[in-house]
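Researcher: Sequence of NADH-quinone oxidoreductase subunit F follows. Predict its structure.
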Amino acid sequence: MNVYGYTPREIIRTPEMHPLTWRMREDQQPVWIDEYRSKNGYAGAEKALKTLSQDEIVALVKDSGLKGRGGAGFSTGLKWSLMPKDESMNIRYLLCNADEMEPGTYKDRLLMEQMPHQLVEGMLISAFALKAYRGYIFLRGEYIEAAVNLRRAIEEARAAGLIGKNILGTGFDFELIVHTGAGRYICGEETALINSLEGRRANPRSKPPFPASVGAWGKPTCVNNVETLSNVPAILANGVEWYKGISTSEDTGTKMMGFSGRVKNPGVWELPFGTTAREILEEYAGGMRDGLKFKAWQPGGAGTDFLTDQHLDLPMEFASIGKAGSRLGTALAMAVDHEIGMVPLVRNLEEFFSRESCGWCTPCRDGLPWSVKILRALERGEGQPGDIETLEQLCRQLGPGKTFCAHAPGAVEPLQSAIKYFREEFEAGIAKQHYNNARAIGGIQPNNLLKERW
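Model: Prediction complete. Tokens:
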């Protein structure tokens, strides 16, 4: 029983239904190599390296339907197939995106801290399939425990002949390095991650060329998320049909999902795609704390649109959440209760995104701070007529295709949806005297007021 007096739904993890978490210990201590191998660990790697060709592994992953678990949901096998076939390009890199700086998201941290060998095995298989001789885990700098555990797991794997030269007697060489980042949210974008890894400023790169052809140090590079790579060993060990059979959705396999906010049992659980948000909120997270009413939720991190209680019965899958006007993202949802005002909540989010902008393109560099200024004024009750319309205009001007990368489009998602569903809270921040002044002078145009103000 936890501190809020709620006993969460009992979770019985099985290899058949929980490929990512069934090996985890009840005492939450890391699973080291002896225990991991006793629980069928590295079986997928042995099968892949000893019995399958690189092309066969890529085809298996593609057929499994595995999608990227970092938020975009792009086909992993298809991404792998974009790597060049030219054998003369013998220097290739596999990068693991372990930056995880999305507010409200902590799934990769759990996997790295408690199951480090699962990620090592996933990278070993993936590197073999991609013919990559070196891998890097680009780790969020604040994840100190994860860094310690991953480095120990790599050394254990090296001692067992699973990292280094001539792995499992196959002639395949692979080195794996943990690289801790300097703490910038923008490094979650794969080309900004590559720039940072090379020692450059973490600005996104222009695409094309894509990393698959010109990536780290100008060589073919594949970037995958922690959870994505952690799925690979089970797919290789148990097969495509098994992996597809876990899910009740068109999206295959399982997903680390959860709820944070003022719920009784905040946490993260491995669940099949198709599980509804209501089931996660009420049965796993225990519902809202006593005395609090549910108001809204973000499906997958701070950069996703808010949804309301009418969307709670949607299955947690990429298509359904997308049709509702948001994104599945990382599938770590945040619940908002009735005591939280949307204006200060969104202002806090926009301050984060504004601070974390790399400043490369004008809409993001100037537009996000402008939205913060307006939101601060609304929060103080000093807003002016036209402020809400200006925020809506900024959301359009910072939307998809209007900026150099996806940072600004993600940043304005919570803002545009909060205005959509809770416009009256934004209107309440406009000072009454401004309404009266506007009426007195015959309905002055908001844009004129804004020009004088800004």
